[in-house]
Write a structure and sequence with these properties.
2 copies of one chain form a homodimer. In chain A, about 40% of the residues lie in helices and about 15% in strands. Chain A is α/β, with parallel strands linked by helices. In chain A, the strands form 3 sheets. Chain A has a 6-stranded mixed β-sheet with strand order 3-2-1-6-7-13. A 5-stranded mixed β-sheet of chain A has the order 10-9-8-11-12, with helices on both faces. A two-stranded antiparallel ribbon of chain A has the order 4-5. At the A-B interface, strand 10, helix 5, helix 7 and helix 8 of A face strand 10, helix 5, helix 7 and helix 8 of B.
Chain lengths: ~375, ~375
């Protein structure tokens, strides 16, 4: 764990999302990466095409790596990790067997050390550069993610646009479009003429109001409208200001909930397209958070989810004892494929820290040292 | 128009919904109906099965009518009207040609006078027994519907559970389930432990929270949970009380918006499963409404949407000049099938009374008499 890695010990990270995918090979921290991009995830005939996307990215990456080595031979890949958008939901819906991805990584890259995780985990590892704490991810969806001193992961929210993801792009767009519809009807409570005009620019004029119930890409349409709502808030539209305020309250609450698990270091960062591009939303969230958690250190995001996947892969190589499987968030295989027979969802990972020893807040070092507290 | 209808002049009404369908034949007001029931509407291979449901109901009804006449001959059907759940959305999505239903009614019943309408119109005609005013329909969805002295129809909301239908069963269930998810995560803003326990009874224990994004019947699941939220509100759970209060405010606003169109008589009723079965929700809505519209007469619902379809059919027979087509809400055919060539959605029916003469409030009789005001 303290030995430096040998030179030319490459690891591979992959990040698979709804708008695109990417992979990188790294010979070690601070040295240049090889990077390739690929298509977004799709569901085809009721199955996720994640295995195909992973295989394609790995092949492209190895080709690039070969070319970059200029005939000096393809380097050995010592470990690989992939973060996937929607992994848990796809697993539940029977659209993806996360275990199959271990096989694809192992076959494509010739490594026995592989990790498959939800992209919340890789977003955390990227944003905090592998340090402890909690990360708030806000893009189309919203999730708070934290890790404790035993490398146990916790999520807050991330439950989708219908009954969760408060403050996300999808949520803000939904609230904004509802306010536009109210103005069109002549309703008054929560209506916005400004958002009505914005919705007409965004969706075209709709004589009878906008409904998205039967629209397959409703979520991306809503998330696209969020930028208009936040622009209207900056311009002072009261309804839009109220939507932004409710979003910030909800996001701060999600981050606080993730942070409040025992043994999570008091450090936070944010990542994701929406909150990164709307600094006033981040400022509101952090203001709410520091009201209740003045002890927390707020840091800038160190990197992207792809960087987090590389952090995870390098840990498989350098500190494998510090990367336990933590299903359904994270599945680790260290050359022991017989584990694949175990159902992915059965591990006892509690979302809330129930039914295990209550750990005191604020002294993770003492606990880690096994002082008996 | 003032002549009494001849005896044995039967009309037929049909009501097609998401949980079932029904049809009735009536020989005249106050005389016993013949009634049959049928299956709910479905979308099969991208098309609504409404034409098949209508044909089946008509065949069953005529058989019943035959049997009831005991060999005295099948009575002539003089007019027929059908109200459909989701007609406008199905038309927009290319799942249903509303004109095809005129043909099915004409062929199955042997009548030239047919009407095809959204079920909001038949719900209104049933609840107010054909009188003027506005009706609030609250079940899985929520819509305010009003008619002016020129028999022009206006809707408020009814825009679906994603960006509309505030206060409906789907909306209340969605808010309630979001509050349950918050409690599970350890979030605090808008969380409810009471609703978390209720959601576990309703949906079973979900270790990582409930998400419905990939669930085909999400809306009916949400609407089913609304009853639990309203029960928790009755028991005093503060989050549930707040959800019920926001629902009532939104519903009152929807009803007020429908009522505020010029020429709509100041009379209201409510109908639909949710508001009918939850009297305290109706009381809250009416309290908000009378705060802003103390002039409004509140009446009990006179009947169901099926009764409204019979009112509509009888009007086709007795006062056809009073039933203009008012697309996309209502399509009327009086033995002139060449109209069918006209696209259903092109008529200029404004949701808000823009671009036409502003009519003064409160004096519909004078206006109807053509006083030149």
């Amino acid at each position: 764990m303290t030995d430096p890695p040998p030179e030319d010990t490459w690891v591979v990270g992959l990040d698979l999302g709804g708008t695109g995918s990417r992979a990188a090979a790294s010979p070690g921290p601070g040295r240049p990466h090889i990077r390739v991009e690929g298509p977004p995830l799709h569901v085809v005939d009721g199955r996720s095409d994640a295995p195909d996307v992973v295989r394609g990215l790995c092949q492209d990456l190895m080709r690039e790596l070969d070319a970059a080595q200029a005939g000096a031979g393809t380097p050995r890949i010592a470990a690989a990790a992939v973060g996937l958008r929607g992994m848990m939901a796809m697993d539940r819906a029977g659209r993806l067997d996360p275990y199959a991805l271990h096989d694809v990584l192992a076959d494509s890259l010739g490594t026995e050390r592989t990790a498959v995780s939800t992209d919340a985990v890789t977003a955390h590892l990227g944003a905090l550069g592998g340090r402890g704490g909690a990360v708030l991810v806000v893009g189309t969806g919203a999730v708070g993610v934290a890790v404790d001193e035993y490398a146990r992961w916790y999520l807050a929210d991330g439950l989708g646009y219908l009954v969760g993801d408060q403050g996300s792009g999808g949520w803000i767009g939904r609230e904004g479009l509802a306010a536009a519809n109210k103005a069109r009807d002549g309703r008054e409570d929560g209506a916005s003429q400004v958002l009505l005009r914005a919705s007409e620019r965004h969706f075209g004029r709709q004589r009878h109001g906008i409904t998205l119930d039967s629209t397959p890409d409703a979520l991306s349409l809503l998330a696209g409208f969020a930028r208009s709502v936040l622009a209207a808030a900056r311009a002072g539209d009261p309804t839009s200001v109220a939507i932004r305020a409710a979003a910030a309250r909800g996001l701060a609450d999600t981050l606080r909930a993730a942070l409040s698990h025992p043994g999570v270091e008091p450090r936070v960062a944010t990542t994701g397209k929406l909150i990164t591009k709307v600094p006033e939303l981040r400022a509101l969230v952090m203001s709410h958070l520091t009201d209740v958690r003045p002890d927390v250190e707020i840091v800038d995001a160190a990197g992207e989810p792809l960087d987090g996947a590389l952090v995870l892969a390098r840990r498989l190589l350098e500190t494998p004892e510090g990367v336990p499987s933590n299903r359904p968030f994270l599945s680790v295989r260290m050359g022991t494929p017989d584990l694949a027979a175990e159902p992915f969802e059965t591990a006892t990972v509690a979302r809330a820290p129930r039914r295990r020893k209550k750990l005191p807040d604020g002294d993770p070092v003492t606990l880690r040292a096994g002082s008996g507290r």
